[in-house]
Amino acid sequence: MSDVARMAGVSKMTVSRVLAGHSVALATRERVQHAIDELGYVADAAAGALSSGRSEFVAVLVPSLASSNFSDTVRGLAAALEPQGLQLLLGDTDYDLQREERLVRSMLRHQPRCIALTGAQHTAATRTLLRRSGIPVVEMWDLPSDPIDTAVGFSNVKAAREMVRYLTERGYRKIGFLGGASDLDRRGLERLKGYQQEIRAQGLGEPRIVRLGDSPITMSHGGPAFDALLARWPDTDAVMCVSDMSAFGAIMQCHRLGLNVPGDIAVAGFGNFEVAACTHPSITTVSVDAHGIGFRTGETLLAALAGDGVQGSRKSVKIDYTVIARESA
Amino acid sequence: MSDVARMAGVSKMTVSRVLAGHSVALATRERVQHAIDELGYVADAAAGALSSGRSEFVAVLVPSLASSNFSDTVRGLAAALEPQGLQLLLGDTDYDLQREERLVRSMLRHQPRCIALTGAQHTAATRTLLRRSGIPVVEMWDLPSDPIDTAVGFSNVKAAREMVRYLTERGYRKIGFLGGASDLDRRGLERLKGYQQEIRAQGLGEPRIVRLGDSPITMSHGGPAFDALLARWPDTDAVMCVSDMSAFGAIMQCHRLGLNVPGDIAVAGFGNFEVAACTHPSITTVSVDAHGIGFRTGETLLAALAGDGVQGSRKSVKIDYTVIARESA
DNA sequence: TTGAAAGCGTTACCAA
DNA sequence: TTGGTAACGCTTTCAA
């Protein structure tokens, strides 16, 4: 910066002001800009953050960057925050609470202005770290009963119950559920819980549950899980899956077995992933506005920063979901 | 840090040493650690970076975080770099060179130790910025003729030619290509080029090319593109797609049209995405080690940092690819 | 509209 | 093994 200042014949302060877009005489500004371009000067954000006492980072943690659900959420966040000059500090927890804690610790060292994480489940140490940091926190994709600060999400339990109701309205009675075996995927567990509640509430007999494989649930989940379900309960007439990925695998398995979907058996997914619309038959699913979760989170965070910039809003932003009726159920 | 030092009855320097893992008497270290835990002290990375002159950031730019190909690459990078205490600074260029330039500029402000970007195509300003920064640069997913520094990738042209050879060896002669309409997806264009070269080389008549839609190519690409291909060249016996996403869409369209794959028409993809293995019929494709590209990139960067930490290695790391024969072609 | 000085929280360096 | 001091490159604050 001193070099630029010397070349433009001004003080460092003027260079700083030009960079920050503060008022500077036009002629001066042009001279400074010219010097910047000439020298290829790039300001040091770390020095700026140290001096001003605030960084331009926003920390974001999702379970899996590979899942289109969460990458949509990240895009929504970016759409809301990047125009404000904020930098996303992205992390992938891999559905691992310990890893989440490590990432939070590491990100907090960069003094982010605020932080968005996924889910309501965190280690005690994570919660302590976040509270002590004092910065605005948003938990996404769920509506925790005991939020750290703000939440932007929806009830996975209720959404799953709605899907069961959709299926029973269509006349299905012997409804199975395909989910993951791991307890780390809380949202998956909530969906399972919703399924169980609604099956019980409607008196549809014992729940037919297959839990298989690790999170994230991938396309290769559906086939084996479907086989396991039919092996145990051969008269099942509809299958509800914890995610569209699994539903897709189940439908492909039906193709292989020569089963007609939904004629012989109906299949429903969750999440409205791209594959759901493109598969033949197209997959009935619960559509969640993943991008919207990110964007609303971004807006919420911006509002908190525009205020006092500390945590404590304790708002809950509810995100809509809807059952999308397609061909498979 | 002063607070911690006071509480532990030592100087700030000793606290710094404990944090950095330098040699400190055990008793002292324990007292300091206790004070750190007690106070919930989190060191300021920005101050550390400023003082030491080096950050712990690695900048990474991919065209799309949502594409499992690139998210696998990011995971590979994280696997190689996070154990070294490096923080990924992730950006999503959205296949937009201007956006890439903005992101590079913004990331360079954080003084990353090194940077990995995707592809060989960048704006002139981006190239200048990167050269002037002096930090090690890796271009991934391609083997540029004029690399900025190091490259880790493979020839998309050659890989596509290999797929055409696979198809002709299987007896297919009237082979079409489904790709995107945008010239921004350079790797897609290279694949198209490889297709054309090999069709010409084998004297298979005029190339049958459909270019439709924007990058990234999604599952909804394949159906309409497939229809366009058959409308123009009804006797086509095999379709080669720029990506598995498109191939999947094409196969679903075949299901709808009652066409047997590969009996009536063969379909091949590119990338070995998860969907390729799970679709019925499973999709013949070119498998690229996306995770390996990330991991090798990480290793390359670590080697550069362990050396002088500046750009100029000019290596080219070739990544393997193979045609995976499955049911669809 | 511009400049000078102080200081942000850490680490490098040298000294004890 | 530990401590004191001087940076690091910027922004804040106050003065001109």
Automatic annotation (TrEMBL), chains A, B:
GO terms for molecular function: DNA-binding transcription factor activity; transcription cis-regulatory region binding. The keyword Cell inner membrane does not apply. SMART domains: HTH_LACI (SM00354). The keyword Nucleotide-binding does not apply. Pfam families: LacI, Peripla_BP_3. InterPro entries: HTH_LacI (IPR000843), LacI/GalR-like_sensor (IPR046335), Lambda_DNA-bd_dom_sf (IPR010982), Peripla_BP_I (IPR028082). This is LacI family transcriptional regulator. It comes from Caballeronia glathei.
